Amino acid sequence: MGIRSLAAELLPSALTGLQRVAFAPSPATDPKAEAASFAALADKLSYLSKADLRQVREAYKFADEAHLGQFRASGLPYITHPIAVAGLCADWRLDAQAIMAALMHDTIEDRGVTKTQLIERFGAPTADLVDGLTKLDKLHFSTREESQAESFRKMLLAMARDVRVILVKLADRLHNMRTMSAMAPDKRHRIARETLEIYAPIAHRLGLNQTYRELQELSFEYLHPWRHAALAKAVARARGHRRDIVERVRKDVEASFAAQKIRVEISGREKTVYSIYRKMREKHAGFSQVNDIFGFRVVVPTLPECYLSLGVLHQLYKPVPGRFKDYIAIPKANGYQSLHTTLVSPLGTAVEFQIRTPAMHAVAEKGIAAHWLYKHGDKGGAAEAQRLGALWLQSLLDIQDETRDATEFLEHVKIDLYPDAVYVFTPRSKILALPRGATPIDFAYAIHSDVGDHTVAAKINGEPVALRTELKSGDVVEIVTAPGARPSPSWLNMVRTGRARSKIRHYLKNLESDESRAMGEKMLAQALRAEGLQLPSADPSDAEAAQIWQQLTRWSGNRHRGELLVDVGLGRKIAIIVAKRLAQIMAEHGRRPDAVTLTLSRYGGGDGAAPATVFVDGSEGASIQLATCCRPLPGDAIVGYLGRGEGLLVHTADCATGRRLFERDSERWIPVAWADELARTFETRVVVLVANGKGALAQVAAAVSAAEADITHIEMSETAGAETAELRLLLGVRDRQHLADVLRTLRRSRVVLRVSRAKP
Predict the structure, then answer these.
(1) pLDDT of residue 14
(2) Among 492, 440, 502, 508, which Cα is nearest to 469's?
(3) Predicted pLDDT of residue 44
(4) Global confidence as pTM
């Protein structure tokens, strides 16, 4: 027996009126019956005006003609699918434009209809909705994943402008999932996986719980049919065993509310098979250990009666400590509001109760769609859902502003699709909802990108904390900023929200681009000096110089001078080759080599360096990196490898990895040298063999500290029962001489048997 036949068996059907019990979720209707004709759809559209209904009928005729002769995999005429999708949208009482878009949502993609045709016949708003629902199959992408990501980006951005796009899309996906049995197994598996990872979380994020549960359940059934069948049977058996206790709890609850004269609607609810499966996996538990499979929903007319009902239930049965949640005072991120409490039944089992008003119930089941259901009545809860949903939709636009790569955009959105949230406060008592595991950096970027970019420290409940500290519900978070602060690459490992991740990446990309441009300009200028020429001016008012740069960028395939310099700085183009071409172009413009410049280049006149030598001082950032295989220190002989797109990588002259690269790609090596003034300390790896005993690690750390060095990372070999242990330390030192001082200090320690700098 499947999950969809739960309602009939769990409780007696004789209960009527406000005090009745019926278990959810509701069964999916027969797709053949629901899509039989336009007449069935018209019956659902009685809430529309006659003028709107005429427009919808026109859209139906247009879609019917467009799909004439087209059939679904099941053999049914294709038009049955758009009618069914429009019917689901009608259940949410969406407006005429959304219903028309639902009827015509595949006309552009499948039947060659143009957006212009739709604008002329049905108006721009409806055409925009259809266009937002259309995938990008006509464009060419290098991979299927890239095409899919770009389609999602288009749909989600259209949804950020008009939420009806995603409501129609979710209705489309729900009907496809209900009728997918005729498809090939591999296609079913792919669509079910996509639904579980993207569409079901979007439905949850927007508060469409009924749709969310059914999409999850159907996806699970197609992905793991044997597991689904086995669990469904176990649920059916357990339901029979629980019938007595459910009946007793129901009678007790009804009697208590009747005694208090509170009008109430009680309905039973049972966990879906997928949610039981997920809980079993998360807790590594068997089916018999999942004890909160069923519960009750209590719907009362007004908000004050929610809290009165809570008192009635707590007087009836004992509450389980720590299992009460007030989502009315602090709604979930998707607008969900209810009181949750777990009580101990007379037989000792835990039973969860959810208490809410009818408006809250509409929002809980239909989320943002409840905005249309309640727009002519009391829409307090629904308006709140629309507001909270709009906040997330706006965050999509913020992420898009920072992320031009479709795959990266989809990655950021996936992060935000799981609304298991914590609720924290600003110092001024404003509530912010963030994903579980969020840190103060996420909080800072949620306030404003400028606050995030300049964060230096954080306080939680008045106490200073590390920036990687996980936030908990109820925390009061204060961010400390400084004008000179900037994001660190390590922050990407700390943040949970897509907004924070995209802002940090955007900042770092711009920073890397600036550094690479400066590096490229320096390298190109030095290479050009070897030709006896100075780099042309970057001043746009210098017409001749501007023409030279234009010719050079046309030759290199770059859009402008800055992009060419970035490519040189990142090693995508070799400075010497670019300089030779630039010299030819300058010669065509009558510029001749200058003897003084040539002499300076050959004999190191100005700065005492060999031709095109790049100086390393530790402040270069992403454009120059020290190789982690050999970890060069000031004082080591070094060489520079200009990688393809990675910038300049500095190796020690005796590094085996560097030598292999030189043999394979010798033209990409350029001279490098240490600058006289260094901007920071440098990391190197040291191996220490110590006598295994109490306090050995502390003595090593004390010796390193005495030599004024820092331990940035430490690894230790397995030491159980051994007389010696090997420590691998990553030390921060000023230069090679400082390292020698550290090694001498370590050798004087009583516990150190041997110490040396690690070689690759």
Answers:
(1) 30
(2) 440
(3) 86
(4) 0.53
Q: What is the pLDDT of residues 362-405, one digit of tens each?
A: 877 776 666 555 444 444 443 444 455 555 556 655 655 555 55
Which residue in 410, 389, 494 sits closest to 444, CA to CA?
A: 494
> Can you count the helices (H) and strands (E) in the chain?
31, 21
CB-side neighbour CA atoms (13 Å) of 289 = 10
Cα torsion 184, 187, 193, 196 to 10°: value is: -80
On the question of a cis peptide bond just before residue 483, with omega within 30 degrees of 0, the verdict is: no
Domain ranges of the chain: 506-612, 615-674, 682-757
**Concatenated DSSP letters of 21-62:** ---BSPPPPPHHHHTS-HHHHHHHTTTS-HHHHHHHHHHHHH
Q: Convert the pLDDT of each residue in 715-735 to its tens digit.
A: 887 665 678 888 999 999 999
The whole-angstrom separation of Cα 26 and Cα 22 is 10
Q: For residue 728, give the H/E element and its range.
A: strand 724-733
Q: Is the dihedral of CA 587, 589, 591, 592 positive or negative?
A: positive
Kindly state the tokens that stand for 263: 């009008």
Adjacency order of strands within the sheet including 752-757: 710-716, 724-733, 682-691, 752-757
The torsion defined by the Cα of 194, 198, 204 and 210, in degrees rounded to 10, comes to -30
pLDDT-wise least confident of 159-173, 345-359, 444-458, 622-636 = 159-173
Token readout for 523 is 């390298």
Residues in the chain: 760
Express each pLDDT in 477-535 by its tens digit.
Answer: 999 998 888 888 778 878 888 788 888 888 877 776 777 788 788 878 877 887 778 88
The residues carrying an active-site annotation are 109-110
Rama region for 316: left / alpha / beta (φ>0; ψ in -120 to 50; rest) = alpha
The CATH number of the structural domain formed by 682-757 is 3.30.70.260
